[in-house]
Amino acid sequence: MDRLDNTVRPYAWGSTTAIPKLLGVEPTGEPQAEMWMGAHPGAPSRTGRGTLVEVIEAAPERELGVAAVAKFGPHLPFLLKILAAGAPLSLQVHPNLEQAKEGYADEEARGIPVDAGHRNYKDANHKPELICALTEFDGLCGFRDPLRTADLLDGLGVDSLKPYVDLLHAHPEEAALREVLTAILSADPDEMAHTVAEAAAACSRLGGEYAPYADIAHHYPGDPGVIAAMLLNHVRLQPGEALFLGAGIPHAYLSGLGVEIMANSDNVLRCGLTPKHVDVPELLRIVRFEAGDAGVLRPEAAPDGEEVYETPIDEFRLSRYVLPEGTTAHELTRATPQILLCTAGAVRVGEHELTPGRSVFVPAGEKAEVSGAGTVFRATVVA
Prior knowledge:
The protein starts with a strand and ends with a strand. The chain is of the alpha+beta class. α7 (162-170) runs antiparallel to α8 (173-186). The longest helix has 18 residues, at 189-206. The relative contact order is 0.18. Helix content is 28%, strand content 28%. It has helices at 18-23, 52-58, 60-64, 66-72, 97-109, 146-154, 162-170, 173-186, 189-206, 211-219, 225-229, 280-286, and strands spanning 2-3, 7-9, 34-38, 46-47, 50-51, 78-85, 91-93, 129-133, 137-143, 232-237, 242-245, 251-263, 269-272, 300-301, 307-309, 317-323, 330-331, 338-349, 352-354, 359-362, 369-380. It has 12 helices and 21 strands.
């Protein structure tokens, strides 16, 4: 069992205070967006035996277990993060596995460098993800009912939005959403910037359900993604609630602190709220134009006090233990690899004392017990 020393990524949208507060350290004044736990080559966790990449490469079946290696290969198939959003992230979707393989092969065949700004597919894997709130957490997830969106846009009183309102009323759900998103992302940039400015002013004036979009526009003035964001469900998670983001579901995180887990991939198709490349034709191929609610997840009780966030994904399984004072030790030994992360209180895992933000890697089959008073998230795989 290895205590993990993890890298914090300083992306511009990160909160300057949330991760330092969790860790009990002084803020640096710089944004601290994500703390990565795992074996992603971009920022692998460090252990007393080397990086977690090196540890796994030296003995994959010992560290990951025979079943996990047979199913996923000799690599840890998930990345666990603490995510702290101080400003909205880009509006985005992720491909499914087949789309990722096709897109990666195509861009490789065309000789597009993997680090090129206009490259869509960094690898051949899909990127389903789950975010669980540690604080109140605001996000956008999936398309709102088109008629409800039409009312929302119409309520702004912005003339240049009227064609979108008409389209949302005139067509079946899938066609309406596709046509409006296409129109937004294909509009003349100067005309769209003017529309966004008018819409932002109206959102600020009206407040209420418009307030999240006023804040988005404050961070991304003139960006067509502001209008695209209004097509989506706004959701506010309470601590312990989660969202699962499957392939093709447009989403964005707006603010808050959470635990995020995802398949090990960097594949992102952006819809807006970003200065980065937006490949409209490829994006439209990937997006699932289906309306529905955001699908807030709450953990389901399992034996021995474990609370599981159920998803249809085998590359990761996220659960938590909320341990009150005086709780007996919980047996956590599994035949699959685990990362255990403390987010509240103080707990003991084997010989390691964990306080908020601290984590350990538990190799497959290694005996692991957790005791103490606090909250522990458990990340593993289904194999």
